[in-house]
Write a structure and sequence with these properties.
The structure is a homodimer of 418-residue chains.
Chain A lengths: L7 H15 L4 H17 L1 H18 L3 H7 L3 H16 L7 E6 L5 E8 L2 E6 L4 H12 L3 E5 L5 H15 L9 E3 L5 H8 L7 E5 L2 H10 L12 E5 L5 H13 L8 E7 H17 L3 E4 L1 H6 L4 E2 L2 H5 L6 E7 L2 H11 L4 E5 L3 H10 L4 E6 L16 E3 L7 E3 L5 E12 L2
Parallel strand pairs in A: 3-4, 3-6, 4-5, 7-8, 7-12, 8-11, 9-10, 9-11, 12-13
Antiparallel strand pairs in A: 1-2, 2-16, 14-15
Chain lengths: 418, 418
Amino acid sequence: MAVEVTNVKEQAQKAQKASKTLALLTTKEKNEVLHVLADELEKEYETILTENEKDLANGREKGYTEAFMDRLSLSKERVEDFAKGLREVAALEDPVGEILSSWTLDNGLKVEQVRVPLGVIGMIYEARPNVTVDATGLALKSGNAIVLKGGSSAIHSNKAIVDVMHQALKKTKIPAEAVQFIASTDRSATQELFTMKEHIDVLIPRGGGSLIQTVVNNATVPVLETGVGNCHIYFDSKADVEKALNIFINAKTDRPAVCNAAETLIVHKEWLNANKDALIAKLNEYNIKVHGDQTIVDTIPGASLAVEKDWAEEYLGLEVAIKVVDNVQEAIDHIEQYGTKHSEAIVTEDNETAKQFLNQVDAAAVYHNASTRFTDGGALGFGAEIGISTQKLHARGPMGLPALTTIKYCMSGNGQVR
Amino acid sequence: MAVEVTNVKEQAQKAQKASKTLALLTTKEKNEVLHVLADELEKEYETILTENEKDLANGREKGYTEAFMDRLSLSKERVEDFAKGLREVAALEDPVGEILSSWTLDNGLKVEQVRVPLGVIGMIYEARPNVTVDATGLALKSGNAIVLKGGSSAIHSNKAIVDVMHQALKKTKIPAEAVQFIASTDRSATQELFTMKEHIDVLIPRGGGSLIQTVVNNATVPVLETGVGNCHIYFDSKADVEKALNIFINAKTDRPAVCNAAETLIVHKEWLNANKDALIAKLNEYNIKVHGDQTIVDTIPGASLAVEKDWAEEYLGLEVAIKVVDNVQEAIDHIEQYGTKHSEAIVTEDNETAKQFLNQVDAAAVYHNASTRFTDGGALGFGAEIGISTQKLHARGPMGLPALTTIKYCMSGNGQVR
């Protein structure tokens, strides 16, 4: 069974070889493959659920949290969602082959800047088995082979999903070797991926901060850094009370465990003086635990004094750090110091102050009078995303299909020399 | 004197602080600064030449090659060329602030994808003092601060150039701190830059292969890998003789020491059989030393048998490796194995074969019937380049001003939540 191979280098080489075939397929051919994968996953859902049960049993034994078990757990409906996701990716525009620009030099040499696949994507991720399907779909649609290294807690689910996809690929023009699954749970297997520059074009880590930092600090393969979000909402002195509280509550509580959720609230002292009762009422209504500076501790009943680490914390739950400032510059400076360059929002009715915030804050996404929750490929209309980049090179913010491509200059001449 | 500071972290922090001011300047303001720098360099050329003389004396003592000494050597004319380069950069379009796309979500949230500076660029380079000026000009124009770490052989020249630029910056809106020069020739100073993710946004190494690999293998700061070029010219069976020889001779001899020069010639056996005398005559006319496979050794008088290392070698001089193949696929496979993904060319009158080559060869630039020498920012009309990327992420091929920017999503709403 292909997934049992544990020679990581050999797997990466096979992926690379398959990527050459894949890069030359038409959009129609790739879309057909995605539909075959979707159909096969739906058909074989019982096999997948049986294997998933092994991971769940293992998780119960290890005493994983309820939230973790929920992310790990599959059902017929969740497998159907995988298939739906693949069909949605099939419906997206194919970036490959797009001519981004073209011109002719004075000597007649024709230059075309064309989008081409990256080649081989190395995906290193934690528990969620849906990443196995989503990442594969996006990789294949953009003409890339993929090497999957999922977390050990989902190993049986992921193996079962990949087995089904391999069976499906055998009916298609894409070689099954284009999807490689590292079945070893040994850390050394992951580390081998870090330096396999000859065969892997990019590594995309998805998961918690420590996974991502391990990849960034050890990889010589280029990395697309994703996801850690210590996002701030700033209530300016001229913030509308209702907008401010709605935006904060949405960003904090809609899905507290995701990276575009708010973790710190920064409040102008004048706004706080005028609206402290409304803020306290909302915090109580949503059971949000508060860590704050001294002013907040003196103002909000039950707030504990924030320590240095609170300002950098991704709580990923119903907790928030709150800081009081004298002006917008102080808010910008605080974000500069503690932010993770993900998503940052200002609430104000003063357009000049908003402009200053949007211009000066260095983040993938900056918001005026809206929730940070919109930093998401789906919400922005990208159709699907492979992750949210918090780095500045190559791609920033939600990464859709074009982030999985590079460019190539194609030159046609009739003997031009310099 | 600012350039004497050797606390690398402090310098990077100063650059980062200055980058915040720089990012907000208008195009007009930045252009004015570039003109002030150009004027001051011209005015102070004697100081620069005096300091350059120290590097030259040191170089003579160390017995550097003539080519090396030529690259190191400055003159009034060369300093004037620095100034001319800065004025040309001033004339280029400013990428910063460009709105790459904008749309409005169904809920009314307005999304703008805007180009913004990267922040702080770390430039690590070898002998040529012109990089000190060129890189600074491109960085400032694109709104970035720069930390310069030049080679020790040009230390006096580089220091003098930066001193003059610092004097000039004091008359402008750009803080002198935006240009930092690491005066220490200690390797540990360079290594500090490798991991300074908090303060440096990208490292750009320019120089020989070993410098570049050291940066790539040790940096946790994202790297834009530049320049090593093992470029191939393939003469197909249907290659026009005159075009083929002209293109090869141009790519090999016009400037043999640059990265877009040809290093390997691949020849279809039929072409060789029909045109060996013409090829031999050209190789002799230009005194090109040949390393070849057995067929070449049997065909070309004086050719030595190529060893494995010859196929991967950047000769950077009047030497070439020549391989004979049976078909285009064999040529593509050879390039896949030994190429550096820089620039690769096919010469043929058969458009289908050309298409196959352009589609399948994985390189920044692929050519049909033209010299690889056009892979150059100036030649392609980019105005100036900070280097030629041989990696696939962020930027590929010649990198002009846009390669020194990233994007930012700016969202404006009236209270939108998810």
